[in-house]
Amino acid sequence: MSDRLTQLQICLDQLLNQFVSMLNYVDSSHDLSATNPTETKLSDPMRPVIPTSSEFQSSIYELSTDLILKTRQVLTLIESLPGAGVSKEEQVEKIERLQKELNSLEEKKVQAVRSKDELLSFVNLIIEEFTSDLI
Amino acid sequence: MSQQEDSLISALYPPPPPFVKFFTDENIEKLENSKKGNDTVELEDEDKVLEFLTPPTQPEGDTYRSFGNIWQFNDKMPKLEEMGIEKLYKDPDDKSSSNDSKFKIQELRTLLKSLLLNFLEVIGVMSSAPDQFHIKIDQIRTILINIHHLLNEYRPHQSRESLILLMEKQIDTKRNEIEEIENTCKNVEEKIKHLIQSHVDRTGEPDQVQDIETQTAADDMLELKIDKDFKNSSSPSYTVKFEGL
Fold it and tell me: Is B51 or A21 the better-scoring residue by pLDDT?
């Protein structure tokens, strides 16, 4: 999963694509109307079939709903951008503190591994001693 | 066919520049010496070899050209004004404060809403005066560039935040690892103690030399265990004490 900013940028691109496809749909499927009542309504020979008025309305409705959903998604992403209200200095301070903690934990771990190794060799000794008694 | 593949593969990674072979330990040392004391004793030829080891000086100016692109020496975000684009959002009043990110989020929200509004206006303009659309399109473009610029300005903030998350995760993993190691060690020690104890219980008659020895050895070991519990006792002490068994 990419980070939030990249997600946000991808979503914006998608939003723009929706803009374009919406314009395209309106452009390609709108009905024609006469400029004055005496004129006969023309039809576009390039597009003999255009959707009926109700079809057109419902598609527009659907497209607008999609647009609103996408906008909400973008807004949610904006809201959830990490580290809101934290200053750079606080972040740097925290990073340094975590760095120290990480270092001390690493030391602790080395210590733990060492005592584990000691125990291991001790157990080994016991086993060797025990088996040599058996032989 | 196979020849073609070969040539493809050899073209994938160009050979290193011929002067790499001058980067010997000897030459590097020589270079450092000549840097320190300005040794003029060296021969001309050798100096020429050393020239390969000194990095070239930076070209003049703020930018350089590479692979057909112009690059800046110092990585920085170009300002919107420098790119000739109108800046639609304000800078926060106090720059270094913790409100910076909050402010950016607020501005992003505003820009997104005006983007939507502008789209609506484009549709309106298209229906009434189609030849005027380019003004609105230009405005949408400006808004979008502004949004992306704001997002990119936010990136350093986010990367620091991700770094913090990553470190916290690492600390957690390390803690768990240590705990597991310690638990396993404790279990093993408990088991050994238990075994010794049961052994002593079974053969614990005091009038046998063997058993006394076992007893003391067991005691030693128990003591040792208590002593040890994750303090720095070295392994030789184990061996010495164990020989008593």
Answer: A21
By Cβ distance, the residue of B151, B184, B234 closest to A8 is: B151
Q: Is B154 on the interface with A (CB under 8 A)?
A: yes
Extract the residue ranges of chain A whose pLDDT is less than 50. none
Asked if B185 lies within 8 A of A109 by C-beta distance, the reply is no
Give the pTM. Answer: 0.62
What backbone phi and psi angles, to 5 degrees, belong to B24?
Answer: -90, 160
Cβ distance A78 to B162 less than 8 Å, yes or no, reads no
Contacts of A113 in chain B (CB under 8 A): 181
B222 touches chain A (CB under 8 A): no
Please compute, for residue B54, the number of CA atoms within 13 A of its CA located in the half-sphere on the CB side. Answer: 13
Q: Residue B146: which residues within 8 A CB-CB, separation 6 or more?
A: B80, B85, B87, B88, B89, B111
Contacts of A87 in chain B (CB under 8 A): 96-98, 100
Comparison of pLDDT for B115 and B4, the residue scoring more: B115
Quick one: residue B215, left, alpha or beta (phi over 0 = left, psi -120 to 50 = alpha)?
alpha
Task: Tell me the per-residue pLDDT of B119-150, one tens digit each, with 9 for 90 and over.
Answer: 999 988 888 888 888 888 999 999 999 998 88
Whether the per-residue pLDDT at B242 is higher than 50: the answer is: no
Structural domain spans, chain A? 1-85, 86-135
ipTM exceeding cut-off 0.90 for this assembly: no
